[in-house]
Amino acid sequence: MNWQDILFGDENLSFLAEIALRSVIMFLLLFLGLRVAGKRGVKQLSIFELLIIIALGSAAGDPMIYKEVGVIYALVVFVVIFLIYWMLTKLMEHSEKMESILEGKPFYIIRDGKASKESLSHKELAIDEFYASLRSHQIFHLGQVREGVLETNGEVSLLLFPEQEVKPGLPVWPDYLNKKTKQVPHSGIYACTNCGNTQPLSAHESALCSYCSKNDEWVEAVK
């Protein structure tokens, strides 16, 4: 076993200094490119922009560690990628269809305290991830939410009911969700664990949700 080959490959120790210099150059080029693009953080990135970042990262990686790959090659890739980015951005400014293709469209997840019809057939956000987003907004149950929109960057925007208009809803905290049952223990208002629809159920009743027609598991609605 040759540790020299394992640790340094075909290059000698002096190449480490060159790697460090290459890494600094590529980091500065990436940083400059992103600043020119006007991006300040990951949460501002759409799927299209994330693709651009991945492409830039791929172009930046090889010149950092491979001696035979010059930095100028990566610079050419950067220029081409940012030129494509600029052209597509201009196209999106003048074409809603192009913007929809590249960036996607926001759509309603919640309407009037329960899952919207469109979200039942087109779920881009896993339910556990969605509940986590609600909890990060200090939401206890869906009855507090008048409207919830999944933005193109993956963030969830919420419009809440005024306190006096809050209705019973599906709790989104794990300890409450884990109490789901198919046969309710006593009469009351229960929430469908699939869509958040609430309806009255009698003691020991088993029922299919009248809204989504896909679920027979219930949690007692809270307010």
Mean model confidence by pLDDT: 79
- At CATH level 3, the topology of the largest domain is CRO Repressor
How many strand segments? Answer: 7
The multimeric state of the shown protein is single chain
> Could you say how many structural domains there are in total?
2
Count of alpha/pi helices:
8
Report the uncertain regions.
none
Gross morphology:
elongated
- For the record, the CATH class of the largest domain is Alpha Beta
Percent of residues in beta strands? 5-15%
The strands making up the biggest β-sheet line up spatially as 2-1-3-4
The SS-based structural class is alpha+beta
How much is the radius of gyration in Å? Answer: 26 Å
CATH homologous superfamily placement of the largest domain: bsu07140 like domains
Distance between the termini: 67 Å
